[in-house]
Write a structure and sequence with these properties.
The complex is a heterodimer of chains A (193) and B (357). Chain A is of the alpha+beta class and 193 residues long. Chain A has four helices and five strands. The termini of chain A are far apart. The chains are: A alpha+beta (193), B mainly alpha (357). At the A-B interface, helix 1 of A face helix 2 of B.
Chain lengths: 193, 357
């Protein structure tokens, strides 16, 4: 008989303990919450320690970015790419180092090199990219780079780019309308000549 | 009460209609539609609250969103609405070997059981659809109609799990009706009436007059009643008829879409009914805790609803704290603990009223 009442008491007291635990978790949800509202909140990225000062040596592996205004169309990155994910088409500029207003072409790079070529197509297929970073080293104008790292002031790091369609992962850096603009320009050149 | 008021109001509006039976029908239909809305809103709100409470107790955040659009509204407020819309548009699947007539009938039987019980629930001094003189007895009787629906659902699905769920549910609900009913007898002994309004009238005049604080036996009766109705509404820790992990949903395994959501609606409506009975029977119903303050008719609805919501929250708290009981443990608790204690309770209340008042 005593065991009967002891069992009842034990069950009630242990139930209270359990209820207390869940209550504590419920009222301290702001402190104990483990869920991250992902697109709005992100875990902080850890500090990178690669053994040397990475401010002048960019080995960050994120999305490739091209500053097309600085590109001289030398095709060095296209040749360096081990998976051929970079496709560049260039056309000869009418006059070296001169702006072409119609297509928004800027003749001189930020390194004050005069451009001989107009880049009509500069596509990087990020589905094929192997993030080897080999394209960024030969660039004479340092206009192709991985976002973030030393270039974070130009382009903040983007390591989670995703699209609804696979073809949207082909990043087209040439200014839209460049090819059509060049096609229109050509016949007028011939007439002048 | 409400029907009578509506009827007299409608009669005063239209003197042209001679046939008063049409007016009576309208006066009956209006509160029934209102009650259906109460049930639907209760289900939608309580599903949201339950998901949030569950999430908070498990250190999660539950349904979340940052704005109307792709997300489910601020704090996921529209999540249940979106789920309800999804359920409404889902395909209605009836298994080939199922007993089609009974399969279609079962959700309606359960729903009707919950719906006609809510008719006698008082939400205020005049806000009650039907104030029977046997109100509490009527609610208990109609509340047990649901078990028939559950057995029909389990049988007609032609599925072993569903049948197990239905059978377990029958055993469980029939067993737990007894301690719940014996605890209700304590209320009836103290108040001397079966009418819901009469029971609430007895508890007027502040917290001290509530039956739960009337004497220690009444407090134990409240605990037994509350735990028993958790078992009657098939909620964790007494959810062996549904038992997701062993019976794959039990009696509603084969149901989908709108039919399944009827089960859900009825579960939450049953919670509302049993919590309303607990609030009216033990916690003073629509009376304010402090006599004289906020005790008008409108505040009555507020007090009644807040008491019901508080009790439903405790049910949720139980659900996300305790693991499911085994069948033998369940029956053990009912027949070996609750039944003798509630019998002693009745005796104790009788002796207490004889000695103290």
């Amino acid at each position: 008989m005593i065991k009967y009442f002891r069992d009842i008491w034990e069950s009630i007291s242990t139930m209270m303990t359990g209820l207390g635990i869940t209550w504590k978790h419920m009222v301290h949800i702001r402190r104990d919450n483990v869920t991250l509202q992902y697109p709005e909140e992100k875990w902080p990225r850890p500090e990178r320690n690669i053994g040397f000062d990475h401010s002048n040596y960019n080995v960050i592996r994120s999305r490739l970015q091209v500053d097309i205004d600085d590109c001289i169309g030398c095709l060095k990155c296209e040749r360096a790419c081990p998976v051929q994910c970079i496709k560049i088409v260039t056309e000869k500029a009418p006059t070296r180092g001169e702006d072409i207003q119609e297509i928004g072409h800027i003749g001189v790079t930020s390194n004050s090199s005069r451009k001989a070529m107009v880049v009509t197509r500069f596509d990087i297929d990020m589905t094929e990219c192997c993030y080897c970073n080999l394209c960024t080293y030969p660039c004479p104008e340092e206009c192709i780079f991985m976002t973030g790292g030393p270039n974070a002031h130009k382009h903040p790091i983007d390591y989670e780019f995703s699209e609804f369609d696979r073809s949207d992962l082909i990043y087209r850096f040439a200014k839209p309308g460049t090819k059509e603009g060049m096609d229109k320009l050509k016949p007028t050149e011939k007439v002048k000549a | 009460m409400t029907v009578d008021l509506l009827f007299s109001w409608l009669s005063s509006l239209t003197s042209t209609i001679e046939d008063s039976s049409i007016l009576l029908l309208v006066a009956i239909i209006i509160p029934c539609v209102a009650l259906f809305l109460v049930m639907a809103v209760n289900a939608i709100v309580m599903v949201y609250v339950e998901r949030k409470v569950a999430a908070f107790m498990q250190d999660r955040v539950g349904p979340m969103g940052q704005g109307v659009g792709l997300h489910a509204g601020k704090w996921g407020l529209l999540q249940t609405v979106a789920d309800a819309l999804k359920l409404l548009t889902k395909e209605d699947i009836i298994p080939e070997k199922a007993d089609k007539f009974l399969f279609i009938l079962a959700p309606f039987v359960i729903f009707i059981g919950a719906f006609i019980a809510i008719v006698a629930v008082p939400f205020g001094e005049t806000v009650i659809v039907a104030d029977f003189n046997i109100g509490i007895f009527y609610i208990l009787a109609m509340g047990s109609l649901g078990v028939i629906g559950i057995i029909i659902a389990g049988w007609s699905s032609n599925n072993k799990w569903s049948l197990y769920g239905g059978m377990r549910s029958a055993a469980q609900i029939v067993s737990y009706e007894i301690p719940a009913g014996l605890s209700i007898i304590v209320i009836i002994m103290l108040t001397g009436t079966l009418s819901m309004q009469g029971i609430i009238e007895y508890q007027s005049g502040g917290m001290g007059n509530w039956i739960i604080f009337a004497n220690p036996f009444a407090f134990i009766a409240f605990l037994i009643y509350f735990i028993s109705v958790i078992a009657e509404t098939n909620r964790t820790p007494f959810d062996i008829p549904e038992a997701e992990s062993e019976l794959v949903g039990g009696f509603h395994t084969e149901y989908s879409g709108m039919r399944w959501s009827f089960f859900f609606l009825s579960e939450y409506a049953n919670m509302l009914v049993v919590c309303a009975v607990a609030a009216a029977g033990f916690l003073g119903g629509w009376h304010s805790p402090i006599p004289g303050y906020f005790d008008s008719n409108g505040w009555g609805i507020f007090w009644m609803l807040s008491k019901i919501v508080f009790l439903i929250f405790i049910m949720m708290w139980f659900r996300w704290t305790f693991p499911r009981l085994r069948v033998d443990q369940l029956m053990n608790v009912c027949w070996k603990v609750f039944l003798p204690i509630s019998l002693i309770n009745i005796f104790g209340v009788g002796v207490w009223t004889l000695i103290f008042g």
